[in-house]
Amino acid sequence: MRGVTEDVRLDELPLLDELMPWSVAPLRLGRSWIVAPDVRTLRARWDRLVAAEGARREELFRPSRARTPSSSVAALPGQRTGTVRLSREPGPCPEPVRLAHGPFDEQWLLPDHRLIDTARPELWRVADGHQLFAVEQGYVPGAAGPALLMTAALPEGRSPAGRPGRIRPLFRRPGGREPNLAPGLLPLLSRRYGYEVGAADVPAWAVAAALPTPTGCRVPLPEDPQVWAAGVALGRRLVEVQLRGARGGERPRLPGGRRPYVRAAVPARPTELSYDADDEVLCLGEGRISPVPAGAWEFEVGGVRVLEQWFAHRTAPAEPGSLEAIGPAAWPQEWTSELLELITVLALLAEAEPERAALTARAVASGADRGALREAGLLPVPEAARRPASVLDHQEEGPEGQFALL
């Protein structure tokens, strides 16, 4: 970042918070057993919980100040789960939903409000087949990696280093309606670049050009239309890779001869992950996957190596007798498939990093800053744009089966 910004004050660049003003803090799950890399594990944990009684159920539940088995809460928007106290009538296992548990690590979550300390219902109200989420990573001084990631899964929003980021839905209402953009931004950019700028162009540009700073992501808005067009095109490619086929996109693929394959089967319980740079081999115990480009192995977000964290989430030891200790008896085949795809994603993003860094430098050098937004009346952003929209499209059930008042 030093080479990009040495002649430009970072605080002169617009904040992502000024371009996409509605944001939500990360979820606080409260208990780790409600998340798992596979659905079967979550259902087995639920069955173990509801089979226990009294003090043993409470012990397995892992109560917090926000949630105990006796908590009475409303249903999560869009989820058919019980609202009767868990201690009295647990009901059937909730149908697990996809969760972006960390950068590039999609797992599964039990979407029951009685289990989650702080679920951010405003996110669930707009999570549908049209929605995407921009996840701003917490700032880590000197850390490598992207400042902004995109996912179609509901994001937990916490960065690998534990620092809070922000979750920014692309749309404020279900059905892909009302872009989460500063009022007047699209007309301003359309006049500047000489063609109609679409709502999806802004987050695509941000993925390509965002800079991490202590005050949040800074997003230069260039004066040069060619720089903008090149950045939007690059950003769309990066977003498609990150989404991994979601929302109608293509699944990422490396060229023939560079695609990773399993050369030796992953053992039932691998405990170590290592990398042989000379042969481009990723080792999971006795298992071997290659070719794995060095860029994929070294790819970091928030100062944490993505592949190492992904592996740790699936192999870290758990307290015996706890619900977290319930998991697959052996390494599932689908985990290997997910790992091969993750390697592909990281390799493609690493290959694009020099182009992305050069684009950011061109954008900063192009000269646009927050002053242009102030002169156009876009700043300060109206407070209404920072609050969630009123979403009253369907009835929500409140605690103990009562109707919720929205």
Explain the overall architecture:
The strands form five sheets. A four-stranded mixed β-sheet has the order 1-3-2-6, covered by helices on one side. The chain folds into two domains: 2-253 and 357-401, no CATH class; 261-331, no CATH class. The protein is of the alpha+beta class and 406 residues long. It has 13 helices and 15 strands. The mean pLDDT is 93. It is globular and about 65 Å long. The protein starts with a helix and ends in a 20-residue tail after the last helix. Strand 14 (300-301) and strand 15 form a beta hairpin. The chain has helices spanning 2-5, 16-19, 39-51, 54-61, 121-126, 185-193, 201-209, 225-243, 294-298, 306-315, 333-365, 370-375, 383-386; strands spanning 35-36, 97-102, 105-109, 133-136, 148-151, 154-155, 166-169, 171-173, 177-179, 261-264, 273-276, 281-284, 287-290, 300-301, 304-305. Helices cover 32% and strands 13% of the residues.
* Strands ordered across the widest β-sheet: 1-3-2-6
* Parts with pLDDT < 50 across at least 5 consecutive residues: none
* Overall mean confidence score, pLDDT: 93
Radius of gyration, taken over Cα atoms and rounded to an integer in Å: 22 Å
Number of helices: 13
Strand content: 5-15%
- Rounded to the nearest angstrom, the distance between the terminal CA atoms is 44 Å
Overall spatial form: globular
User: Structurally, how many domains make up the residues?
Assistant: 2
Task: Please report the total strand number as a whole number.
Answer: 15
What is the N-to-C succession of helices and strands?
HHEHHEEHEEEEEEHHHEEEEHEEHHHH
Biggest beta sheet summary: 4 strands, mixed
Going by helix content, strand content and strand pairing, the class is alpha+beta
- Indicate the percent of residues in helices: 25-40%
